[in-house]
Amino acid sequence: MKRRDFLTGLGAGAVATSLSGCAQKCPQSAAGVASKSRATFNWKMVTTWPPNFPGLGTGANYLARAIEDMSAGQITVKVFAAGELVPAFEAFDAVSQGTAQLGHSASYYWKGKSAAAQLFSAVPFGMNAQEMTAWILHGDAMELWKEVYEPFNIIPAPAGHTGVQMGGWFNKEINSVADLRGLKMRIPGLGGEVLKRAGGTPVSMPGSEIFTSLQTGNIDATEWTGPYNDLAFGLHQVGKYYYYPGWHEPNTMLECIINRDAFNELPDNLQSIVLRASDAAAQNMLAEYTARNHIALKTLKEEHNVQLRPFPPDVLQRLRTLSKEILAEIAASDELFARVYKHYREFQQNVSAWHDISEKAYYLTTN
Ligand code: CA
């Protein structure tokens, strides 16, 4: 990534030029502003990912580099993988308290902080990457997300999308709803709640622990992301059947979480850079997954003889019914979740009416 590309995109070159001119010619007060604008900020970014992990960890690295490049080094960002500064699931608290100024993670990990947080990562049978992006950037959802994180002194920004995930790795075939009963599966967020309602036992654990847990039989099944990430983890070595589609994560939106005090210390142009770098990182991650997943799937099928399985239609139907039940129940007990979910559902229904005759109809013509 070349710094020039970012600067050109932003028009930040013009800002830098005018500040430089100002330092020589402007009155004292304006020069003071220019000098404050050139202050440097050495930030830390905590993440919920293993170091340099394809897509997710590299997505965090991309964001850090983008902020440094776009700010011409005025903001430096040191990235910490899960466990390097704080454990994966303490990233939110670390950013909230200012131990780190930035975090890169997925909002469903923070359901213990606010149930509504989950709606900004993945909703079972919910919106895909294109639809989530539209909801956040042009569907008025950003204000709701800010409201959810406001009590925690955190400002959110979208920072990645995985696209539709895989259903996961199972060590027995899923031929009916009954096969979900007693199933101990690593599956986070709302999808985990749905599995629980179907009689299974959801387990939440960071990615770094998945391989060993499945290998030792501590869990019977796991989902992670998709071929690109799952191949990198070697999950084909410990899981027998690879199921699709990822009904529980039709897209997972990743987040950049920003400590509000640290953000407020930045001059306007650097605040803009942090947010625009996140936008760039979000788009880049979806492109990376789209470009790499199909190559990894080919490798899994052809070199590792992975057995692909579709979930049976009646299993998906049951999971869809349970998902609606659970979402309605959480909404009944949590005012903020109810408000955000209503907004989410209305947007999804409206955008689906359009996508039925555009995206879906088009895909059918390409088979
Ligand atoms: Ca996942």
Instruction: Give a list of the ligands.
Output: calcium ion
C-alpha end-to-end distance: 36 Å
Gyration radius (Cα, Å) is 22 Å
- Overall pLDDT, averaged? 91
Strand content: 5-15%
Q: How would you characterize the largest beta sheet?
A: 6 strands, mixed
Order of helices and strands: HHHEHEHEHHEEEHEHEHEEHHEHHH
Number of helices: 15
Approximate shape? globular
| Strand line-up in the sheet with most strands | 7-6-8-5-9-11
Structural class: alpha/beta
Q: Which percent range fits the helix content? A: 40-55%
Number of strands: 11
Low-pLDDT residue spans: 1-31
What does this structure look like?
There is one protein chain. By secondary structure, this protein is an alpha/beta fold. The chain has a domain at 1-37. It has 15 helices and 11 strands. It has helices spanning 3-10, 12-25, 28-37, 56-70, 91-97, 129-138, 141-149, 189-197, 210-215, 227-233, 260-265, 268-304, 313-333, 335-357, 359-366; strands spanning 41-47, 75-80, 102-106, 154-161, 168-170, 184-186, 201-203, 221-222, 241-244, 253-259, 307-310. It starts with a helix and ends with a helix. Residues 165, 223-225, 249 line the site of calcium ion. Calcium ion (CA) binds at residues 165, 223-225, 249.
